[in-house]
Design brief:
It is built from 12 helices and 9 strands. The longest helix is centred in the last third of the chain and has 21 residues. The strands form 3 sheets. Strands 1-2-3-5-4 form a 5-stranded antiparallel beta sheet, sandwiched between helices. It has 2 domains: about 100 residues, Phosphorylase Kinase, domain 1 (2-Layer Sandwich); about 220 residues, Aminoglycoside 3'-phosphotransferase, Chain: A, domain 2. By secondary structure, the protein is α+β, with helices and mostly antiparallel strands. Bound molecules: adenosine-5'-triphosphate and magnesium ion. The site of magnesium ion has 3 residues, from loops.
Length: about 350
């Protein structure tokens, strides 16, 4: 094994391993390598639901992603492998709307549940989460993310053909509604009725193409702006989910790095303003109310659901978030500013 000087990756897969030969065959079927070529495959850090690697081919580096039947989390959590295809389909559609906002798809291999995409060199494409961790929290960047998201939602809203193409209800249930909301309901019996109702309501809304995982760890800060990755949870449904999911991360980052609390809240405000400004398929007030409710539920799920935030380690932070989320779940806000103002007040306690 050799060390890769450029990206800090330390070991590539042994070519004889079953994973390497599986991916090698996939690259051949996608016609991305020559018959006599054995590219080095470098696993990337961070994949929870997939194997994700850099392949150094004769034609240059590319990124290959293969769905895993079981997610690498502590609690049992399985998800349909067709989510790999859902991701490719989302990426291709998003590229038609905003070509610079997604990596170029280079090929798809259904039999190995994998696809290949353009390699985005980490030196010029840092992960937004890492920037936020380091206190680099720029409202203008959050505004760009919101703008991209609402542009995709607006371009795909009320389109029955897309609703049919992305009818990944089972995926979305397995990856989001069940592990986040149903699992949380089991730990909070007094919130169970509200959460069950939210699951039913959300599952029934078919309004636009949802990404499903708008998290800072899935967003790269590229030279031309944000690049959205990891669309495995793509689903034609309630776009409020995407906004709420991202806003949850901006609030919880305050607990991770309390010194930047106000900067994260400025990002939150910039996101809200730019997202709501672009809503043209329904009254902005209607979606804002749904975002408020989903945000409260997602916040609670990030403590007590199947995918707790890894940086929320202290009992004090967990209790703080739990109490805050339960309050807004049981007494829903209709405006996001109510939630951010309350969170801001918490900073000064
Ligand atoms: N096209 C790409 N070029 C370079 N790096 C990439 C590319 N796509 C993804 N990555 C890197 O790999 C990481 C994981 O990618 P992705 O989120 O798609 O995989 P995942 O298995 O679904 O991860 P997780 O379950 O942890 O969200 C990203 O955070 C990014 O650092
Ligand atoms: Mg990811």
């Amino acid at each position: 094994m050799t060390a890769d000087q450029h990206s800090g990756l330390t070991s590539h897969l042994t070519p004889e391993s079953s994973q390497a030969s599986d991916l090698h065959r996939a690259l051949l079927r996608m016609r991305l390598i020559d018959a006599d070529e054995t590219p080095a495959l470098w696993p990337l850090a961070g994949g929870v639901s997939s194997n994700i690697l850099r392949a150094d081919t004769r034609g240059g580096a590319l990124c290959i992603k293969q769905a895993l039947p079981e997610l690498k989390v502590a609690t049992h959590w399985s998800a349909p492998l067709e989510r790999n295809h859902a991701e490719v389909a989302w990426m291709k559609l998003a590229a038609e709307i905003l070509p610079d906002a997604v990596p170029v798809i280079l090929g798809e291999d259904g039999s190995s549940h994998s696809f290949a995409m353009q390699w985005l060199d980490p030196e010029h494409h840092p992960v937004w989460k890492a920037q936020l961790r380091d206190g680099v929290a720029m409202p203008a960047f959050a505004a760009q993310v919101a703008h991209q998201l609402v542009t995709i939602h607006a371009a795909t809203a009320n389109q029955p053909a897309l609703a049919q193409q992305f009818a990944y209800d089972q995926n979305f249930f397995a990856l989001r509604l069940d592990p986040y909301f149903a699992a949380t309901a089991k730990k909070h019996p007094d919130c169970a009725a509200v959460l069950e109702k939210l699951i039913a309501q959300t599952a029934n809304i078919k309004r636009a193409l949802v990404h499903g995982d708008i998290s800072p760890k899935n967003i790269l800060a590229g030279p031309k702006g944000p690049i959205l990755l990891d669309a495995e949870c793509a689903w034609y449904g309630d776009p409020a989910f995407d906004a709420a999911f991202c806003l949850c991360h901006l609030l919880t980052k305050c607990l991770w790095r309390p010194l930047s609390w106000n900067n994260y809240l400025s990002c939150f405000d910039a996101f809200v303003e730019n997202y709501l400004k672009g809503v043209n398929w329904e009254p902005a007030a209607a979606i804002e109310a749904r975002i408020c409710k989903l945000l409260a539920a997602i916040l609670l799920a990030r403590v007590d659901g199947k995918s707790p935030l890894e940086y929320l380690t202290s009992q004090e932070d967990q209790d703080h978030l739990r109490q805050f989320a339960r309050h807004w779940l049981l007494q829903p806000a209709t405006q996001l500013v109510q939630i951010s103002a309350a969170w801001k007040k918490d900073a000064t306690l």
